[in-house]
């Protein structure tokens, strides 16, 4: 895949400029609001009156790293706080390539498009393994393409764009493949709080110097604008990742990290459960309307995206524009996620108008 301005922005601009009301199902910005402790933490930070307005430690506030380490059952030395999950993925993929044990990065198709983009930017070579119709990968396919040229295997569970949640066997085998090929498995788990299947298995379950787990608070606390994520890696990777982070970003944002720390300590598990319940309802309503529209689709096991295919209406950019103009619904063209889903469209269920959008689609395709 080419590295270019992500399609997201083009589609969002087209939808914003449209001459009619459009339901935006393109962006990945949660609409359900953050837990109150996020704002409280931010206010408390502001009220310190400037004493703490200077650089935080580059690898992240010590207390936040300790909180993450305690929650994830790892040593604090393994935690690097980053500028979102995006920053964590960049550091992890960069580290995998810098080891000099190969220049290939294996990823799935469909793929979260920033992985191929980052691969190219970091001077690596993209290798794709095609997922099945439900978005699952057969680890045997990964083993087949993995070789001494493999620097990294990057996966995402729960998955954007397919909604797949990889089972335990897949995760165990991916770690083993990375080990057998002297590569690094990067497991991007930014949607870990959005598992509806009960099957989610973090790669952290497998203690190995050949896996790096990346995560973020962007989605789980509905704060995509705060830019706080983290990577967990064996110290032999964590230390060079910290250096790369320092050289590229100097440090992260102290107010954001302070607010996240306060929110982690003061948010009831109900917040996450309520969000999942809300999304379950949206998924049910949306897929019901897709049935009415005669569409084929995958019901997400996790994350908050639905891929759908409408008969005789491939998910091209032209058709996405047509749906915006004629139906008033903006989705993403499947081609934005690789070659395997060019017939499909992706809809993000991060709008209170998901039901309305579904009805509009059902009417349009009726
Ligand atoms: C799979 C995946 N990884 C990473 C990110 C980026 O997360 P962050 O906003 O924390 O950088 C996203 C955002 O949509 C994503 O879908």
From TrEMBL:
Its EC number is 2.6.1.-. InterPro entries: Aminotransferase_I/II_large, AspAT/PAT-like, NHTrfase_class1_PyrdxlP-BS, PyrdxlP-dep_Trfase, PyrdxlP-dep_Trfase_major. CDD domains: AAT_like. PROSITE patterns: AA_TRANSFER_CLASS_1. Keywords: Aminotransferase, Pyridoxal phosphate, Transferase. Residues 21-352 form the Aminotransferase class I/classII large domain. Its cofactor is pyridoxal 5'-phosphate. One of its GO terms (molecular function) is pyridoxal phosphate binding. GO terms for biological process: amino acid metabolic process. Gene3D superfamilies: Type I PLP-dependent aspartate aminotransferase-like (Major domain) (3.40.640.10). The keyword Transferase applies. SUPFAM superfamilies: PLP-dependent transferases. Belongs to the class-I pyridoxal-phosphate-dependent aminotransferase family. Homodimer. This is Aminotransferase. It comes from Halobacterium jilantaiense. The lineage of its organism: Archaea, Methanobacteriati, Methanobacteriota, Stenosarchaea group, Halobacteria.
């Amino acid at each position: 895949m080419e590295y270019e301005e992500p399609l997201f922005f083009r589609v969002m601009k087209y939808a914003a400029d449209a001459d009619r009301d459009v339901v935006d199902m393109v962006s990945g910005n949660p609409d359900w609001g953050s837990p109150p402790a996020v704002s409280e933490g931010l206010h408390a930070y502001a009220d310190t009156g400037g004493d703490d307005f200077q650089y935080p430690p580059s690898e992240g506030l010590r207390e936040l790293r300790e909180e993450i380490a305690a929650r994830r059952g790892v040593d604090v030395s393994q935690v690097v706080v980053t500028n979102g999950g995006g920053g964590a993925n960049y550091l992890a993929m960069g580290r995998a390539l810098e080891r000099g044990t190969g220049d290939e990065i294996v990823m799935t198709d469909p793929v979260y498009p920033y992985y191929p983009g980052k691969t190219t930017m970091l001077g690596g070579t993209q290798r794709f393994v095609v997922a099945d119709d439900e978005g699952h990968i057969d680890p045997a396919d990964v083993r087949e393409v993995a070789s001494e040229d493999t620097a990294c295997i990057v996966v995402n569970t729960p998955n954007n764009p397919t909604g797949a949640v990889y089972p335990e066997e897949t995760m165990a085998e991916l770690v083993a493949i990375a080990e057998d090929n002297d590569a690094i498995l990067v497991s991007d788990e930014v949607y870990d709080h959005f598992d509806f299947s009960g099957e989610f298995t973090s790669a952290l379950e497998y203690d190995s110097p050949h896996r790096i787990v990346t995560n973020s608070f962007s989605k789980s606390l509905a704060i995509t604008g705060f830019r706080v994520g983290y990577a967990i890696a064996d110290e032999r990777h964590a230390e060079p990742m910290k250096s790369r982070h320092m050289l590229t970003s100097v440090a992260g944002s102290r107010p954001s990290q302070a607010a996240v720390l306060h929110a982690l300590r003061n948010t009831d598990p109900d917040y996450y459960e309520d969000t999942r319940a809300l999304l379950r309802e949206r998924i049910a309503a949306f897929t019901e309307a897709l049935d009415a529209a005669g569409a084929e689709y995958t019901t997400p096991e996790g994350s908050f995206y639905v891929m759908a295919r409408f008969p005789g209406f491939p998910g091209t950019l032209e058709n996405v524009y047509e749906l915006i103009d004629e139906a008033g619904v903006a989705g993403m063209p499947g081609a934005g996620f690789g070659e395997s889903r060019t017939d499909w469209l992706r809809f993000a269920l991060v709008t209170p108008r998901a039901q309305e959008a579904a009805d509009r689609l059902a009417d349009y395709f009726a």
